[in-house]
């Protein structure tokens, strides 16, 4: 496994506080981003996903995403994780004691966790099919 969180969470009995991960990153009490930051991130991801970028490397990335069924929602989730340090730091606490028993924290990042888990699963399948020599 190349892509993982480092530990498993028991999310079966957790009900989300928010309706989707956009609401989570805009409104949770641990760390947030502004609506402007959300919109900027979404626009950048849409441009990559629609192959509207002139950069050759990003065009290759676009083809890689499409070829491996990584959807826009998953791309945005990864970009949020990579680009917003405070948000990522608070999210990652879910996987460490004592925060991993904080039900409110788990509820606040439920959808983002779910989307990233799904994305990492897809990326692991790619890595297994195409191992790096």
List keywords for this structure.
single chain, 7 helices, globular
Q: What does this molecule look like?
A:
This protein has about 130 residues and is mainly alpha-helical. The chain has seven helices and no strands. It has helices spanning about 20-25, 35-50, 55-65, 70-85, 85-90, 105-110, 110-130. Helix 1 (about 20-25) crosses helix 7 and helix 2 (about 35-50) packs across helix 4 (about 70-85). The longest helix is centred in the C-terminal third of the chain and has 20 residues, at about 110-130. The protein is globular and about 45 Å long.
Short structural summary:
This protein is an all-alpha fold and 133 residues long. 60% of the residues lie in helices and 0% in strands.
Shape: globular
Helicity range: 55-70%
Give the CA-CA distance, first to last residue: 15 Å
Overall average residue pLDDT: 88
The topology string of helices and strands comes to: HHHHHHH
Total number of helical segments?
7
Strand content: under 5%
Q: Provide the low-confidence segments as ranges.
A: none
Computed over alpha carbons, the radius of gyration is 16 Å
